[in-house]
Structures are given as C-alpha cells and as structure tokens.
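Entry 14. Structure prediction run on the chain below.
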Amino acid sequence: MAKNISMLCLLSLGTLALSGCAQGGLGMGRAAMTQAATDNAQLAAQMQDLNQRIQRFDADNNALQTEVARLQQQLGVTEEEKSLLREQLAAMTQQLQQAQVATQEVDQRLNALQASTRFNGGATISANNSLTQRLKTVEIAGLEVRQDGDVIRVELPSDKVFSAGTTQLNQLGTTYLDQVAAAIRRYYPRQIVGVEGHFDSQSLANSSYTTHQLTATQAIAVLHQLTRSGLPEKQLFTMSMGDSRPLFSNGDPNGQARNRRVEIVIYPETYESS
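Output returned:
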C-alpha cells in the first residue's frame, strides 16, 4: 500500500514536473514570437521610411532635371539675344560711320559756302551774305517773298496760277513765273533752285488723286515754265510735299487756300554749269 502510495506520489510529482516544463517552454515561445513581431514591425517601418525617402529623391531628381532643362533653354535664348545684340551693334556702327561721312560732306559743303565767291567786277562776298542782302531786291507784285533761314522762298498761290480743277498754268501763272525766272537770272544765276508743290489736306478727300501726285504734277509744270523762261534745267529740281507742310490750319477754307501753293526755293549752294 505504502509502495503504491509512493508510486502515486512519484507519478504525481512527475506529472507536475512535466506540466511545469511544458508551461515554461510555451512561455518562452510566446516571448520569442512577440519579439519577432516587434522586429518585423520595426523593419516594415524602416522599409516604409526608406520608400518614402526614395520617392522624395525621385521627385527632387525630376525637379532638378526640369530646372536643368529650363536653364539650358534660357542659355539658348541668351545666346540668341547676344547674337541679336551683336547684329544691332554692327548695324549701329555702320550707321555711325555713314553719319560721320555725311557730316564730313556737310562740313565740306559748309566750308565751300563760307568761302568767298567772286562775281563780275571782282567783288568778293559770302554766299549767305549775298542772299541776305539781295532778299529785298526780289519784289514781284502779288507774290510773297520771304527769307527762311539760309534760303529764299517765293510763294505762288495755286488757286491763282493754275486753271480751276487742273494742273495747267493759267496766263497769270505764266506771267508770275516769267518774272521769277528773270529775277533768278539776274540775281541768282548760279544758285540751286527748288520747286516745292504743297496742298491742303481736305480738298482731295474724295478724289482718286493723292496730294503728292497732284503737287508733283504742279511742281513739274512750274519747272517746265521756268526752263522755257530761260533757266537751265540742271539749276532746278522739284519736290512733291503733298499736305505734309501746311503753313496755316486746314480747319477753315481760308487756311486751306493758303496751304495750296507752289514755293520756289533759292538755295545758297551753287550748281556746276558746263
């Protein structure tokens, strides 16, 4: 009995020992699993962080590539601007050289004009002084003669010297031009003479002609009459001014009439006769 009781006790003790061992092993497995889960969560977090960093790096890389492309485009524009500036500088340099040449030519002409000019009888006078002194000598009834800087202007009203509605000189116009030509032959035989045609800005509003076309025809008609009156053709030239040089307002009929005119302009420069 006692032996049986001892056996039972031993069996009980063994069972208890085995039970304790089993419970101890299960506790250790659960701890390991918990640690592994924690490690996995940390690794996942680290991987997520690394993925986010990679995405940010990719975005930054794309932004840098875009900026590089923009800078390269700006560099190309800058090169085009540099090329354009070089072309403009070359053009301006050429214009400056041309202006310098023109200035030299003007200086030469000015020196020639300021030089003494000998007329019949050996009298020596300056060209500009000659024109100023002789301005009052040219007096033609019905015409206005005025000094305009270095030139003399003889004004012929178009309404008086041309037949109405035409570019043909009338008898009064021919008489005026014969007198003008006689004065030029007497006092300014070597001076260059220009014939300027002027008009108002209203009278041809509904016409097929432009003011430049009309004034060009009128100026040529005056030039032809001056040559018929004895002036050399190479002494004369014409200019069609249209309505670009009004003397009076075109807002009223009187101003318009005054602006319709032909001006004979006597210059201080002389022409070369041959």
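The chain has six helices and seven strands.
Filed with the rest of this week's runs.
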